[in-house]
């Protein structure tokens, strides 16, 4: 029997992805600052939590309160899903626990494993891979990242990691993460005419999935992201 896919709950998008992401995949959400990487990652967890799938959102750059407030302003109220979704502020936890000598990666893994036992989450967001890499100060980044991606797959969770890009489209994580990942969602802002900027989304790659690589317009409304065909290219 075919494995049940994890829907992104981006309206109009899942039907272009055979229904969603295969469980166990590691998917990057790449984009420039402000392209709504964190919001999109959260929304995937939020709407899956509503369907009873447990999620863990680990924030490395934004405080827990700030994440929850931002998502509420986008129509995703945390209280509605708090039974199935945990938001962790790793920076605060690390400070509180006085784990001075433990590396960021060790602290992250410790929490990820403990929470897997206690709440058995199916979906994991690490926001962001860029910051985790910076803080981890790998000695051999390529090897350590390869092992990290394998570790994530062995955890039996579907992982989504926002990853920064520069305005030129260069990936800020230069260790071949895009090759290691099973899937890549690219977000960008496109100038349309003289004044307008439209948000765009495309699935660059997704393992074992027949999908279109084309860009769609990305909208956010009433707690949901949605895509439409790009109409105007003037
Ligand atoms: N209530 C809202 N309604 C519409 N758009 C919003 C709302 N709140 C935030 N935004 C847009 O979302 C952007 C921030 O989203 P988000 O934090 O998810 O982006 P990001 O790509 O993760 O950013 P960063 O690169 O800083 O991590 C804001 O810059 C703004 O353009
Ligand atoms: Mg972000």
Produce a short descriptive summary.
The chain has helices spanning 37-50, 64-73, 90-97, 104-119, 129-136, 141-154, 177-180, and strands spanning 26-31, 55-59, 85-89, 123-127, 158-164, 183-192, 196-206, 216-221, 224-229. It is an alpha/beta fold and 234 residues long.
List its salient traits.
234 residues, alpha/beta, Rossmann fold, 9-stranded mixed beta sheet, 9 strands, globular, binds adenosine-5'-triphosphate, binds magnesium ion
Write the layout of secondary structure elements.
Layout: E1 26-31, H1 37-50, E2 55-59, H2 64-73, E3 85-89, H3 90-97, H4 104-119, E4 123-127, H5 129-136, H6 141-154, E5 158-164, H7 177-180, E6 183-192, E7 196-206, E8 216-221, E9 224-229
Parallel strand pairs: 1-5, 1-6, 2-3, 2-4, 4-5
Antiparallel strand pairs: 6-7, 7-8, 8-9
What would you say this structure looks like, in words?
- The chain is globular, with a radius of gyration of 17 Å.
- The chain is built from seven helices and nine strands.
- It has helices spanning 37-50, 64-73, 90-97, 104-119, 129-136, 141-154, 177-180; strands spanning 26-31, 55-59, 85-89, 123-127, 158-164, 183-192, 196-206, 216-221, 224-229.
- The chain has a single domain (23-188), classed as P-loop containing nucleotide triphosphate hydrolases (Rossmann fold), CATH 3.40.50.300.
- The model has no long low-confidence stretch (mean pLDDT 92).
- The N and C termini lie far apart (46 Å).
- By secondary structure, it is of the alpha/beta class.
- The protein has a nine-stranded mixed β-sheet with strand order 3-2-4-5-1-6-7-8-9.
- It binds adenosine-5'-triphosphate and magnesium ion.
- Adenosine-5'-triphosphate binds at residues 31, 33-39, 70, 73-74, 162, 220.
């Amino acid at each position: 029997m075919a494995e049940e896919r994890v829907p992104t709950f981006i309206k109009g998008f899942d039907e272009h992805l055979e229904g969603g992401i295969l469980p166990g995949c590691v998917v990057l959400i790449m984009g420039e600052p402000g392209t709504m990487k964190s919001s999109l990652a959260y929304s995937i967890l939020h709407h899956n939590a509503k369907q009873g799938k447990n999620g863990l959102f680990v924030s490395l750059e934004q405080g827990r309160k700030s994440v929850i407030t931002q998502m509420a302003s986008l129509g995703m109220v945390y209280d509605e899903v708090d039974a199935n979704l945990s938001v962790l502020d790793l920076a605060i936890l690390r400070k509180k626990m006085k784990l001075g000598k433990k590396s960021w990666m060790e602290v992250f893994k410790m929490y990820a494993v403990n929470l897997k036992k206690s709440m058995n989450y199916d979906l994991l967001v690490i926001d962001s891979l860029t910051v985790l890499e910076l803080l981890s100060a790998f000695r051999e980044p390529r090897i350590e990242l390869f092992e990290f991606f394998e570790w994530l797959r062995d955890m039996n969770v579907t992982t989504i990691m926002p990853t920064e890009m520069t305005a030129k489209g260069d990936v800020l994580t230069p260790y071949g993460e895009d090759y290691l990942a099973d899937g890549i969602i690219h977000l960008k802002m496109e100038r349309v005419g003289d004044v307008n900027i439209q948000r765009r989304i495309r699935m660059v790659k997704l393992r074992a999935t027949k999908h279109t690589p084309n860009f769609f317009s990305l909208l956010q409304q009433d707690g949901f992201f949605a895509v439409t065909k790009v109409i105007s290219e003037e």
